[in-house]
Write a structure and sequence with these properties.
Distance between the termini: 40 Å
Structural class: alpha/beta
Number of strands: 22
Strand order of the largest sheet: 1-22-4-21-20-9
Helix content: 55-70%
Shape: elongated
Keywords: Hydrolase
Organism: Vararia minispora EC-137
Low-confidence stretches: 1-86
Protein name: P-loop containing nucleoside triphosphate hydrolase protein
Radius of gyration: 63 Å
Amino acid sequence: MPPRRSIRRTAEESDNSQKENAPQASPIARKIRTKGNRAPESEREESGREEPESPKGRKRARVNEEGDGHEIKVKPEPVSVRKQDRTLARDVDGFVTGSIVRVKLHNFVTYEDVEFRPGPHLNMIIGPNGTGKSSIACAIALGLNYHPSILGRANELNAFVKMGATEGFIEIELKGPVGGKNVVIRRKLTAKSKTSQFAMDGRQATGREVQQKMSELNIQVDSLCSFLPQDRVSEFAQMTPQQLLRETERSAGDDRLTAWHDALVNAGKERKELAELLAADNKQLETLQERNANLERDVQRFKERKEIERQIALLELIVPFMEYTEARERYTKAKEEQRRLHKEVQDLRKRHEPLHNLRKRFESQHRKLNELRDDKKKEAQQDVQTKLQNLKKAEKKRLKDIEDLEKNIAKIQRQLEEPVDLEDIQAIQEEIRQVNQLSQGMRSKQIDLQDRQRANVEVTSQARQEFNAAQTAMAQLEDEAHRKLDNYARFDPDGAAVVRWLRENRGRFRMPVIEPPALSVTVPNRAYADAIEACFNSFQIRTFVAQCEEDYQLLNRLAVDTTEAIGRRARISTWFRGDADRGTPPMTEDEMRQLGFDGYAIDFIDCPEGLKTFLQAECRLHRTAIGLSFQRVNGNKAMEIVGNSGGGTFIVGRTQNQVTRSAYGRRLAQNLTREILPARAFVGSTVDHARRQQIQETIMEARSRLETHDMEAAVLADEDRLLKQEHAEHKKQHDALNKRMKAVHDHHKRVVNMKNRLASQSDKLEKLKNAPPIDVEREKLKKSLSDVTKKRINLARQVTDLIRSSIADQDAATKAGLRYLQAGSNKTALDVLISERAYELDEAIARFDVAQRAYVALKEDTKRKLDASKAKLDEVDDDVRDAFREMERSGTVQNRDVEELQNELEVQRQKLDLCFQTNPGVIEQYERRKAEIEALTEKVAERQRKADKVERQIKMAKDNWHPALLDLVKSIGQKFSAAFERIGCAGEIELTEHEDYDKWAITIRVKFRDNEQLQQLTAHRQSGGERSLTTILYLMSLTEQARAPFSLVDEINQGMDQRAERTVHNELVKTTCGTGESGQYFLITPKLLPDLEYHRRMKVLCVNNGEWLTEDKRVGDLKTFLRRYTASAQAA
């Protein structure tokens, strides 16, 4: 960008017809090579595999001919595809529908205002570097609503607004349908917003509407085969052969190739999945059927056994029921008999009840009188006898107590008389006093020691707290480093593994190997993180830096060349430069500050000292100025200063400016701007190295203090141990003295106790000896007994007197006695009568008892059998219970008695014994597997139907796609080979087929020297010029087959030698201007060779630049200048 404040760019239009296009060389026929032997179409159809549905059970969407995601419904077409008419719709003015008629720019990148009209055929845009040629390509892509990423430059729209301007626009006029009006699309951009506004034909439109229009016009700016910007030229060679086929299908040939291919890819995947699932299902089905076949005999035997068990269960249910039925009948009869006999007994008891009551009354009176008489006899004698017995017992006990007391008294006296050697209590107390004095002194020492220990514990605790706090702070720092390493492992797992290995194997290297900048560089100020990370590319930020050649070689050998370090060969970048050229900053500190910059990138980072060489030599952080304020930085002045220093990078706001010098013309400065992306590696919390060093010093100091305090604690512990030993000795002495003192006291106490006991027992002995003798008490009792006898004699005499006086009454008593005897006789006769009648009653009762016992037994038996029958009914299965109830309703249960049923039950049990037991789990497996077989059979049939349907769809799509693709590749290959042959090299296009349609590919093979073999075009094998030459020749081979209304290539001739560049130019002129079959073409180049071929259909657009351009288009018109020059040359 020229260092001028008001610079405008214009494009002058110039027709040049110096030379007509030379006749094309006859194309060289080339056989299209395919990999693998392919069977004929009919054989492939018959042997096609059936594919199952997706393993997840969802139906895959297949792309139809329109390219959408709906299910394909391919209409049957003839196998030989009709050759489509490829002639683009061209109007009378020469423009095809969709080509660019006019471009107008305002405040776009380097342009203030410009408007130009390209031609309908080849448009050559020339001009020195930095004048804005590539900006035209950017304008075309952005103006037609394509994403900035396809340009390989900035990803945000506001980065394309001219520096210093607030807004701008792009206006592009596209050729409309033949006979219709053109389409004018305008896109307005603003510097402060990443959004934009569209207008189409003068009315506001949405981006979707613009995209729809691009689709209608078949414009393919997003295809590298149709639109190849300067920054993406190298990407063409980086495309895989599969991607190249896809881009070729989009750009040339039948417009349905892509849709057919998408349909085949999706259907092929579905077919493969269906085939895998079908194979698995069929294998599983066969396995299940085979397993069930082996179990059929066991299942049949199990069913037979189950039927026998069912019959047994039914019989076991019927037998108790019938037993209950029969028992109930017996019980009913016994109940009737019991009721009858019970009534008979009750009647007899009612008739005999008065006699029995009378007898009971007599018996009761007699029993009471006898008891009264016996009590009176015994009452007087019992009391005296009892007292005599108690007296004898008391005398025996008194004599025994006297004997025991005499023995105890003698024993106590002997113990008191025994001599005892006792210590002097005063001497013992004196010894105790001395020991206590020693203990008191020791306690003072202990108190002093405890004070010192407490002080030591406090200072140790303080030091330990400081140590733990420092350890915690260090752990937090280390934890941040670990989190940073974990984040780093997400995008560079090999690098993270090597970092972990290095941290564990630091001793194997002479000097520290510095970890990648993503881990070892920190940005203390988060505001600069995005700008700092923009200074690194993806390799630099992941590079390990060695500080000596020896470590560099060792790291590569252990980690990169062998598997010794991490178990596999790591894909990492390593760096060491002993004499790296760092260069000088492009601006001094004063110049940088005056321009509004905050400083150089290296000023805003913290890193190990050994990493700075790498950051300066490779990343140029010391030459990259950063200014976060867009308003304060003078971008034009900065670009001038950086450009004068040979180029470099500076960052303003969120825009990175890369300034280079053109290698042509006036060697003007060029500025490539890129939008800064948000930082990923430097967004985490930074690790403060100074803080880490401070924490380490704190840890070391605290550790030293802890060691000192631990030593003091050990000394104090030893002193404490000695004091404890001394205290233990004193305590031992004190305990021994206390024990001796206690022995003396215990002896005195024992003597006192024995004396007390002696006195007590002597008193008790005296009392027992002085007690009255038993003979006295015995005499008293005998005297009492004699008195009772005398009283009885007196009473007998009184009775005799009474008898004598009652002779008169005796007569009456005798008569009464006779009546008593008569009554007794009557009573005896009554007893006989009662006995006779009692016999009848007893017989009735005996019969009733027999009936009662039978009744109770039958009742219990019936109840028991009823309970057993109910329990059995509850235990059986539902089908057995239902069968029993049906038999009960129909009355067939009572057709047989219990004996017959038990015989049949025994027969069934014997059958069951003869039928071998089968594992019920086998039957469950059989039934479960049978259900699985039925479900799986239906599933296989359904998948087979889907597979057949997909196979038919694949055949119909392939019958259309394959011949059309072969024709396209053959046509491109012939032109490509012919073009390489004309420049003395060789090239061919190879179509590689595969059973997976997404792996079909186009491979470009070229050779540029006679002693070489044909080699595949890759991003690394050929040189830059060879890749560019191959790319443009391939694109030229597509031109006549292309469907896009316009194509563009930017600086494709960079790196070509003159011979190749001249050949490419001439071939391009012939292709785009000769036959009229190709669409509009844009070729952007900064240089031209002399004596090139031109065509009258070409249009040369010259991009001028300078310090000042006039607004008057008549002044400086290039067309007028050329006419005058031609006229003067002819006149001369």
